[in-house]
């Protein structure tokens, strides 16, 4: 699954991951490979993800939007 975290200023992360946990506006949720398509607003918190090597990584955000479609998780943050 591909994760892209982008802001207006730069690309914060792009790469293959095993899972992504996002701070949804209604609560935290995790996306795994072959997840159903969805669009969600995000609140302040931390995007946590595990890359293909198994390393646990994270990126703090103040909010944004997440789009999940065809094993691509696109996170636009502000």
Give the gist of this structure:
The protein is mostly beta strands. Helices cover 0% and strands 71% of the residues.
What is the total number of structural domains?
1
Residue-averaged pLDDT, rounded? 96
The level of helicity is: under 10%
Shape estimate:
globular
β-strand number: 8
**Main sheet properties:** 8 strands, mixed
What structural class is derived from the secondary structure elements? mainly beta
Contiguous helical run count = 0
* First and last CA, distance: 23 Å
Query: Which fold name fills CATH's third level, the topology?
Result: ATP Synthase, domain 1
Q: Which architecture name does CATH use?
A: Sandwich
Q: Which CATH class is shown? A: Mainly Beta
Order of helices and strands: EEEEEEEE
Task: Explain what you see.
With 78 residues, this protein is mostly beta strands. It is 0% helix and 71% strand. The protein has one domain (2-77): F0F1 ATP synthase delta/epsilon subunit, N-terminal (ATP Synthase, domain 1, Sandwich). It is built from no helices and eight strands. A hairpin with a 2-residue loop joins strand 7 and strand 8. The model has no long low-confidence stretch (mean pLDDT 96).
